[in-house]
Amino acid sequence: MKEDAPRGRQSLGERVRGLRVTLWTLIVPPTVWAVHFLFCYLWVAVSCAKLGAFPRFPVAFVVGTGAALAIILASGWIAWVQSRTPGDDPPHDEGTDIDRLRFLATATLLLAGLSFVAVLFTAAPALLLTDCR
Amino acid sequence: MSLHAQDDPALRAAQEERLRAVWAPPKGLFLRWTDTNNNQVGVWYTLTAFGFMLFAGVLALIMRVQLAQPGNELVTPSTFNQLFTLHGSMMMFLFAVPMFEAVSIILLPQLLGARDLPFPRLSAFGYWSFLIGGVFVSGSIFFDAAPDGGWFMYPPFTTRTDLSGLGADIWMLGLSFIEVSSVAAAVELITGVLKCRPPGMRLNLMPLYAWYILVVAVMILFAFPPLIAGDVLFELERLLGWPFFDAAKGGDPILWQHLFWIFGHPEVYIVFLPSIALFAMIVPTFARRHLLGYPWIVLAAVGTAFLSFGLWVHHMFTTGLPKISLAFFSAASEAVAIPTGIQIFAFIATLWAGRVTWSTPLLYVTGSIAIFVIGGLTGVMVAIAPFDWQAHDTYFIVAHLHYVLIGGTLIPLFGGLYYYWPLITGKKLSDRIGRTAFWLLFGGANLTFFPMHFSGLMGMPRRVFTYPEELGIGGLNLASTIGSWVFAAGVLLVCIDLALSPRRSKSLRNPWQAGTLEWLAHPDDEDWGIRSIPLIESRYPIWDQKNFVAKVDEGRFFLPDAQEGRRETIVTSVLDARPVQVLRLGGPSVVPMLTAIALGSVFILTTYHLYWAALVGAVVTLAMVLYWLWTGTAEIPEKDCKPIGHGIDLPLYISGASASGWWAMFITMMADATAFSGLVFGYYFFWTRHEDFPPGGPGMDGPGSFWPMLAMAVMLASWALTVAARELNRRAAVGAARAALATAALLSLGAIGAGLAGPWLSGLKPELHVYPAIVWTLAIWTTAHCGVGAIMQLYTLARSLAGRMTPRHDADLRNITVYQHFMALTAVVTYATIGLFPGAA
């Protein structure tokens, strides 16, 4: 029971649903967390060790955190749309294309949630503590 | 053959006869050990790891007796050091991780309806490596030569040869050898989960155990290599005096701590998640319903895997790193409680929503969750840096880690033992003995480790061989000792139960009425794994698919025969498990065992500084590997395709990204690149530690830019020619492809000379300072890889000349191209780092 879209013009939601979903897209949100984590830790650690001072442009942490959260939100939104792909019956645990898509999308959405929280956790020290002691 | 063809009992009997003959284990006193079937190797592996666990447990009992009362003199301080070091090292490296691999080698093919894992000989090689390395490390205590630096072997005590003996070398080299076998198992298990699922088992239908195995094996791939890199630096310091961890010569012991714990913390989850995976199989069976929140469990497994790599510094809170650095790791350590909690709640919710049948395995599961949660809560406490500063290196930590490991690894494994014993032997264990043992284990664990929280907070440091009476912790320690013996009684009872098993009669098939594929196994075990490889439509096919068991048994699914007398299984696509190939598996062979012995000799002889003999061992190992590859891999089949039933014809030979061999190479190189990044991390770490890096002066100047840049260019040319050879060969320009390969091999050899010329001609003296030492290390790592690359290129050329590689059968060439991609990346990073770094030129 696929919904009929007007020919030639797909809605945004349909185009999003058409995006390819793989094991690689599943790990986009936690990978963003890992990159953000390494960025915060390494920049502070190198700055403290080599310059003896907190990094000179703390606003970069805000920008970096904002960028990380934005990517996670985008990935989570795509996953949310995909996880609601209409088609098969609940509980969506059958061996069909749609259920496989819904499963990977749901897992990605959940990982996006966890990664969002974890990025906030990591950002907190960088934004609150601003010295090398 | 059609469905109806399988109606003929005579045909079925003939098929079974052929399958039985193909999968029959070799007979004979020696030859039986050359089998590679997962149901044999997995059982040896499990029993060996279980044996090491008992041994390490006895070491712990000796320690507990020593600590039973203040001022006790049962063992000397030196023996005590060896006891706790070996206890921790063995439990981690010889029990927890290998046990996960062992159990997975048995279970994974069953869970996936595969006849075996894709590389059975690799599993056998891993097992023999594990056995040799394990006996070498654990046997050292009988010669008073066991390692004594604690299981994390902190320098400088362990790297200074005047302060530590042979034990440190035994630890480093013996366990490095075992790490190699762990990486081999990771390659096997990842490829198994991704490529050997039965048709129809899409990612969303995969048993959760397989999800966990996938996640844990990937973690091994990224966690073990930094330790291998650390081991390399460590042994270079011990054997050659290159001062990586010697502060007097610019080194830094903290680097070891970083490399060790980048391995060490994910390691905790590497041993914990497989046990949770057992829960995920046991709980639905006894709750009599599908597990609730399947995507949530996947979230938890993947999320934990990622976050676990952001926790390592919480073992280093007291090393004086900037507080801000500690805060990042403290934050991640708190965050990891979220996915861990989610898994526990998913199990509780499933039990709550189901109709629970109380059974012995479920008793172990629920008991271990209770113990694990206590350990998890103290974990959240010690993740808070100020609390950790108080508790660090006290018995509070000992209590915490044992609660986590006993609740999160050991007792779940006992639960798994009671659950899966009928699968392996066809016989159930005794419920009565099992329950009694459970209560002894549960009570014993709590009696041993709960008092340790208090003795730790009252000031008892870990790893002391005794304590004064005035400290007032005698009573607590006595309680711990009594508890440890109660616990040991529980383990003994389990062993008795196992020993009684041969006298018991066979149980019914699928005695727990479980719904997942592994329970297709018949009590009268056949070695073929599964009669026919099913089409999967549900997460619990035995429960949900009609006549499922009968159809499998009657060979009505895929590949019910072995006409050509070969061991075979089906390879499918990663996401949707569409069949793509019939993979011919390696049969019984003595080669894996001999290769493991040869490689083991390299590590063991190096320990005793017998370098020439070790070199001979290395050459023999290389020869064995080449023989193994030449005779056992990328074989051109006698026909292109074969039918697997239901009108499907599958190719017998595939190459490139859909082939299991390509994946194995890719995965191995991910591990290799991770080890390399550990060494590069070392370079930049030392840079942050020094005002002037390179320091300059005689023997400490940079290697210049010329030679590193030349080496990079030559290496990139070799890489480009390999890619060209692949394309030329594909287009049937065989002569040109061979010429390209030969030139590429020559260039690889040239890149060795150019790579070493930089540090050699600029007279870098690695014993003087850490800078020349790390430059030499990077150059040697990269040029050694060039050498391996040259061997691969020449091997592929020889395969082409021998007619074992053709334009259509080009797996060898495609696989070495993957190696060359990583090789090019390694060369670029190394030579840019040592040749272009400010001051190096």
Automatic annotation (TrEMBL), chain A:
<feature type="transmembrane region" description="Helical">
    <location>
        <begin position="21"/>
        <end position="45"/>
    </location>
</feature>
<feature type="transmembrane region" description="Helical">
    <location>
        <begin position="101"/>
        <end position="128"/>
    </location>
</feature>
<protein>
    <recommendedName>
        <fullName>Transmembrane protein</fullName>
    </recommendedName>
</protein>
<keyword id="KW-0812">Transmembrane</keyword>
<keyword id="KW-0472">Membrane</keyword>
<keyword id="KW-1133">Transmembrane helix</keyword>
<feature type="transmembrane region" description="Helical">
    <location>
        <begin position="57"/>
        <end position="80"/>
    </location>
</feature>
TrEMBL record, chain B:
<feature type="transmembrane region" description="Helical">
    <location>
        <begin position="326"/>
        <end position="350"/>
    </location>
</feature>
<protein>
    <recommendedName>
        <fullName>cytochrome-c oxidase</fullName>
        <ecNumber>7.1.1.9</ecNumber>
    </recommendedName>
</protein>
<feature type="transmembrane region" description="Helical">
    <location>
        <begin position="362"/>
        <end position="385"/>
    </location>
</feature>
<feature type="transmembrane region" description="Helical">
    <location>
        <begin position="662"/>
        <end position="686"/>
    </location>
</feature>
<dbReference type="InterPro" id="IPR014241">
    <property type="entry name" value="Cyt_c_oxidase_su1_bac"/>
</dbReference>
<keyword id="KW-0812">Transmembrane</keyword>
<feature type="transmembrane region" description="Helical">
    <location>
        <begin position="268"/>
        <end position="287"/>
    </location>
</feature>
<dbReference type="InterPro" id="IPR035973">
    <property type="entry name" value="Cyt_c_oxidase_su3-like_sf"/>
</dbReference>
<feature type="transmembrane region" description="Helical">
    <location>
        <begin position="124"/>
        <end position="143"/>
    </location>
</feature>
<keyword id="KW-0479">Metal-binding</keyword>
<keyword id="KW-0249">Electron transport</keyword>
<feature type="transmembrane region" description="Helical">
    <location>
        <begin position="585"/>
        <end position="604"/>
    </location>
</feature>
<keyword id="KW-0408">Iron</keyword>
<feature type="transmembrane region" description="Helical">
    <location>
        <begin position="294"/>
        <end position="314"/>
    </location>
</feature>
<feature type="transmembrane region" description="Helical">
    <location>
        <begin position="42"/>
        <end position="63"/>
    </location>
</feature>
<feature type="transmembrane region" description="Helical">
    <location>
        <begin position="773"/>
        <end position="797"/>
    </location>
</feature>
<feature type="domain" description="Cytochrome oxidase subunit I profile">
    <location>
        <begin position="17"/>
        <end position="519"/>
    </location>
</feature>
<feature type="transmembrane region" description="Helical">
    <location>
        <begin position="397"/>
        <end position="421"/>
    </location>
</feature>
<dbReference type="Pfam" id="PF00115">
    <property type="entry name" value="COX1"/>
</dbReference>
<feature type="transmembrane region" description="Helical">
    <location>
        <begin position="83"/>
        <end position="112"/>
    </location>
</feature>
<comment type="similarity">
    <text>Belongs to the heme-copper respiratory oxidase family.</text>
</comment>
<keyword id="KW-0679">Respiratory chain</keyword>
